[in-house]
TrEMBL record:
Key words of the record: Carbohydrate metabolism, Glycosidase, Hydrolase, Polysaccharide degradation, Signal, Xylan degradation
EC number of this enzyme: 3.2.1.8
Reactions catalysed: Endohydrolysis of (1->4)-beta-D-xylosidic linkages in xylans
Native species: Neolewinella aurantiaca
Protein family per UniProt: Belongs to the glycosyl hydrolase 10 (cellulase F) family.
Matches recorded under InterPro entries: Galactose-bd-like_sf, GH, GH10, GH10_dom, Secre_tail
Protein name: Beta-xylanase
MF annotations from Gene Ontology: endo-1,4-beta-xylanase activity
Amino acid sequence: MKLSLLLPLLFCTTMLGAQPDQYNSELMNWLATQYTLTGATFPWGDTENEMLGRFFPYNESSAERLTREPGDLGFTQVQSIRINEPLLNGWDAGWNGNNRETISLGDKMLWVIYIRAIGPEGDGKVTLIAERNDTYAKEVEVTVELSTEWKRFFIPFEILTRTHPVGGMTMGMHLGHQAQTVEIGGMAILNYGPDYDLEQFPNDLSAGNYAGFEADAAWRAPAAARIENLRKADMNFTVLNEEGSPAANASVEVRMQRHDFDFGTAVKASRFPLGRNYSPAFVDRITNLDGEGHGFSSIVFENDFKWPAWEDEWISTNQQTRRTLEYLNERNIDIRGHVLLWPGWGNMPDRMQENANNPSYLLDELDKHLVDFLETEDFDQYIKDWDVLNEINTNTDLAAALRGTPGHPTGREVYANTFKRARELAPDAKLYINDYITLSLKNTEGAVIYEQYKDFIQEIIDADAPIQGVGFQAHLSASPNSIYEVLETYDDFYDSFGLEAKITEFDMPTSVSEELAATYMKDFMTVTFSHESMTGFMFWNFWDVDTWQNKGANLFNEDWSRTLPGHTFKDLVFGEWWTNEDLTTDAEGKTSTRGFKGTYEITVDCGESATHTFTVDVVEDKSIILDCAQLVSTTLPELPAGSVIAYPNPATGPWSVTNNLSKILKGELYDVNGRQLWNGNFAPGTTEFDLELPTGVYNLRLSTQTQATNLQLLRKK
């Protein structure tokens, strides 16, 4: 009976809602006066009653509609929703409704909503969403913290996923993050069409909305101290003249070339030479971000190494991906592997789901895939670290299919076994787990899914699997995470597991202003760079044209002009965190400096004899002897005899350099005056080393981080 009465009531209120009510009329007039925004339509309804009547709670503990006096806030209708306990996922409880009018691709929307938390908990957290109701592709996804005071949010956004038919777009909120009572009022959803610029709209998701933005915030001084301690090293130089005596007043130039800490980005292999989407400008920025020849030190393929993408050659051909690996390796750019196993049916080849009831088949196919990537293709020779597992909290299909089968009582045993198999096939790579459920969803210690994730990692560790790193995805919302909560998450995972970590996928939504993106990105990078567990920070692409979805913190616009976040990144990574020094030795031939850990080009002036330049890796306090007679650093012990062989020698053409070790060697070629002529890498096996060089004697220095050797190469006519 209640339902039969409700449907005519909704129909009647829809028909009667021909004109905005007082609240919506006053809101429209205010927006027209303050922001010159006119001509809006109301795809969900233009009265308070109609608007709230189109939205319904789900999985709530209780819900009721309330009436209030308009007062200073202006609205009279309130929706109250109670959630008694936190749920596994925020979206497991919520409140949403669908559009009554078509919304076109490119339309500019403004969402106005008041929210507060009034339960005994004293606070609340909700995720505001606007999405396609078929694929759940997001137009908006913003997680906000609530207090007992009403907070009005203005959320402008552009329709980017498609033209939404009637009933095809869902807006509302996820409420399952915690136990809470949430009240909602004053909600309006306005469509201003395609012609306005989003910058004209009000947007109160500003820097003041994240904890820790203040210039004197309590986290800043400790972070700066940690950076000074963790990310810097002393460089002590002793310069000897050609007679072997201390060289007083000798000039030593210290020029940083790259960070030891990885700063990187996701890329498409097809953007590189001979690729179907080759972009010379893109490739140039990879190695020349600052305009002075310094670029990203690490990349990760966004899709090319995903299992079905490799088999079906989604964007790049496999041959192109192989060429790009060699191209990047030759330029000494670290490569992350993403991903060996993403265990949802939609992220594996179709045949896996088709054989869901055949556990032996599933395990055999997984093993074939690992062997193909890590042994047959031998990608391990290029890859510094692998995401062995991706998003296991929400991609549970494979574990569910294996649950209860021999050796898999929970099904999750496949996770530890995948780590073990990856180690057998890839003995040198760091092995990571990667997920979005912490930072991307603003889940913190105590949240159900946060604790579940930690339990899953502990299961892998307890099974003696060789997990070495935690990858934190950071697809952040327009209401940025508290810096304090970010730091607490880093601390909690490191204290719990002692594993290294990386930010593996960083971006911010397009709705964020460049000012907020630049401000927050700097703070987020700073707290990350300051943490002892962290070894890298990866953008999930950096150019507007290639970005998957969230362009808010990209470094470059479509036309390659630098964004405000791009300037901030350059000033931070190649400025504030960069070391260039001009030093002069004392009477004992000594001088020193303290700089950021990384690779340096050192130039010493040996007087009338010559100026010598060489490259050195500084990852800890280092004492370096600059012997003008020999110009040989004595800081690294020798590689084992026979580790590297070059032949023929002398040579009239290319040398064949055979690396008999199982690891990549860094190579540097110098002439007799100590000038560096080339640097790159030698993979295990034989490499043709072909450079156009005049007749003469050359020194080829080959090194790992702990050992080095020198080969004398002779070029003859």
